[in-house]
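A reminder from the course coordinator: this example appears on the midterm review sheet, so study it carefully.

Given structure:
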C-alpha cells in the first residue's frame, strides 16, 4: 500500500524536578535527579537495534559536524546531555493514532515510533512518528496536521464549538493506561490550569520520569513535520506555474498548517512575504518543495521523488528541527529562571542561584546552541531557515542582556551589602576608641587613687565601677549622636 503522507508531531516542553523549586538551577534540571520508571512500555535506547538503524545512524553522523553529536545522541552515560527513550509497542505490533474531527470525519495513522528525549537544560521533546496509507486527498492531509497537533483548547469556547481542536484524539494499541491514551477535551473549562496539555501527553512523559512537572513551550500546538506526495500539486510548481502555485492557498495552508476552511492571513502582500521567506526551493526541478515556519517543516513532492530526499526529511531534518526546538525551549527556560531570581524575596542564596544559572547557560552556549550544524549545502540552508524563523539569535541576544542586567543587579546588591558591613565595623571601631581611651585613663588613675586612703575609700563607697560605666556610656552616646548627624 502506498504511503501518501508522513507526519511527525513534536511536543517540546520545559521540566523541573518536583520539590526542587527553591534549589539552584543546576539541581532543578539535573537529569540524575529524575526518578526513572522501570515501565515495560519504555526503554532507554543508546545503540541501533538493527542493520537499517545502523545505516541510518552512520549517515546521520556523517551529515552533522562531530561537535554536534553530543547534543543529538544519547551516549548512555550518566553525564550525557540527552536521554533517549523509545516506546516498545510500535516496534512489535500495530499502533494507530486516531483523529476524530467535528462532524464525524475520522483519520487513522500508522504509528511508526514514539520517542521521548530529555535534555540537561531542563527541556524535553515527545515525538510521534506516523504514516498515512489511507488518505490521498489534500483535505485529509491538512486536517491530520491541523487537528492532530492540537493538545489542548486555545480558547474555552472551542471546547463546545470544536473549530480548532479535534473531537477526540486516541492511540490504539498502547498498553499501560487503564482509561486508554485518549483525550476528548470535555474536561476543560475556565477553571482548568493554563497550558495544561492532554492527559495522554503528560501520562506518557511521567511513565518515564515520574517526579518532573512540565509546561508546553510553543502553545496548544505540537510542531509539525510532514511530507506529502501529490502529483497534481507537484506538476504545478515543477514547471512554469511555480510562482502561481507558491502563492496559492494550497501551499500556504500546507506550509503554515492553517485552517483548511479559512487562512489566518488575509493580506495578499503579507502572504507573499511570509511564503517567500519560508519556502526552500533547492530541489524544485525534481518536483520537491520545502517549507519552514515557526510551527512546521513540510515537504511537498510527486510520487516519483527520490527516496533519499524522503530519508533526509525523516532523519536529518527531523534532528535539526528538534535541535532548534530544544534551543528555543532552553532559552525560555533560562529566561524564566532570570525572572525567578529577580523576584526572590529571600536575599540569601541570590549569588549562588545566579552562579548556577550562568554555569548552565555557558554549557548551553557551548554544547547545544550552534550557528551551523552541517557542512552540506542543503543542511546549512535548512538549518539557517529554522534558526531564523524560530528567532533563536534574537532570543539568545535578549537572554544575554537579561543575564547581564541580573548580574549587574546582584553585583550592586553585593557591593551595597559589603559597604554596609564595612560601615558597621567602622561604627563599632569608632565607638570602642573612646571606651579604650577612657578605660586606659581610669586604669592608670586607679593606681594613683589607691595611694590616697580617704579618696580611695570615697570611690569604693559611692561605686567607682558604676561611675566609670556611666561616664563611658555618656561618651558612647555622644559619639553615636555625632555619627548620626554626620550621616544626615
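Designed residues:
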Amino acid at each position: 500500500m502506498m504511503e501518501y503522507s508522513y507526519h511527525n508531531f513534536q511536543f517540546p516542553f520545559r521540566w523541573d524536578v518536583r520539590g526542587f523549586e527553591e534549589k539552584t538551577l543546576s539541581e532543578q534540571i539535573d537529569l540524575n535527579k529524575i526518578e526513572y520508571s522501570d515501565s515495560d512500555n519504555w526503554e532507554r535506547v543508546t545503540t541501533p537495534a538493527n542493520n537499517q538503524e545502523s545505516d541510518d545512524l552512520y549517515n546521520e553522523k556523517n551529515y552533522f559536524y562531530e561537535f554536534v553529536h553530543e547534543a543529538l545522541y544519547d551516549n548512555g552515560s550518566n553525564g550525557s546531555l540527552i536521554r533517549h527513550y523509545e516506546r516498545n509497542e510500535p516496534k512489535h505490533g500495530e499502533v494507530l493514532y486516531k483523529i476524530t474531527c467535528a462532524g464525524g470525519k475520522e483519520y487513522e495513522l500508522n504509528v511508526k515510533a514514539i520517542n521521548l528525549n530529555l535534555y540537561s537544560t531542563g527541556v524535553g521533546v515527545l515525538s510521534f512518528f506516523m504514516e498515512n496509507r489511507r488518505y490521498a486527498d489534500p483535505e485529509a492531509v491538512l486536517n491530520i496536521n491541523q487537528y492532530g497537533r492540537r493538545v489542548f483548547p486555545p480558547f474555552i469556547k472551542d471546547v463546545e464549538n470544536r473549530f480548532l481542536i479535534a473531537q477526540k484524539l486516541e492511540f490504539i494499541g498502547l498498553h499501560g493506561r487503564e482509561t486508554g491514551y485518549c483525550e476528548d477535551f470535555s474536561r476543560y473549562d475556565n477553571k482548568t490550569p493554563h497550558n495544561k496539555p492532554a492527559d495522554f501527553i503528560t501520562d506518557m512523559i511521567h511513565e518515564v520520569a515520574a517526579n518532573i512537572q512540565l509546561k508546553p513551550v510553543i502553545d496548544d500546538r505540537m510542531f509539525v513535520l510532514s511530507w506529502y506526495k501529490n502529483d497534481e500539486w507537484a506538476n504545478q510548481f515543477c514547471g512554469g506555474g511555480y510562482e502561481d502555485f507558491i502563492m496559492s492557498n494550497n501551499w500556504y495552508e500546507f506550509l503554515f498548517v492553517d485552517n483548511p476552511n479559512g487562512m489566518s492571513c488575509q493580506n495578499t502582500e503579507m502572504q507573499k512575504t511570509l511564503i517567500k521567506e519560508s519556502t526552500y526551493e533547492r530541489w524544485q526541478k525534481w518536483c520537491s518543495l520545502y517549507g519552514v515556519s515557526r510551527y512546521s517543516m513540510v515537504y511537498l513532492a510527486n510520487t516519483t521523488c527520490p527516496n533519499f530526499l524522503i530519508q533526509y526529511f525523516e532523519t536529518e531534518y527531523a534532528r535539526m528541527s528538534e535541535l532548534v526546538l530544544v534551543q528555543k525551549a532552553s532559552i525560555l527556560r533560562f529566561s524564566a529562571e532570570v525572572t525567578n531570581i529577580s523576584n526572590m524575596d529571600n536575599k540569601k542564596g541570590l549569588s549562588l542561584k545566579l552562579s548556577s544559572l550562568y554555569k548552565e547557560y555557558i554549557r548551553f552556549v557551548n554544547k547545544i546552541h550552534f550557528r551551523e550544524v552541517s557542512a552540506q549545502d542543503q543542511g546549512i540552508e535548512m538549518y539557517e531557515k529554522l534558526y531564523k524563523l524560530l528567532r533563536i539569535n534574537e532570543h539568545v541576544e535578549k537572554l544575554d542582556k537579561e543575564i547581564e542586567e541580573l548580574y549587574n543587579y546582584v553585583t550592586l546588591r553585593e557591593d551595597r551589602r559589603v559597604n554596609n558591613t564595612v560601615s558597621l565595623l567602622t561604627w563599632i571601631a569608632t565607638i570602642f576608641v573612646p571606651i579604650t581611651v577612657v578605660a586606659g585613663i581610669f586604669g592608670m588613675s586607679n593606681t594613683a587613687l589607691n595611694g590616697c586612703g580617704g579618696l580611695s575609700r570615697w570611690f569604693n563607697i559611692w561605686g567607682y565601677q558604676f561611675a566609670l560605666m556611666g561616664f563611658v556610656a555618656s561618651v558612647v552616646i555622644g559619639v553615636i549622636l555625632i555619627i548620626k548627624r554626620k550621616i544626615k
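Residues 5-390 form one domain. The mean pLDDT is 87.
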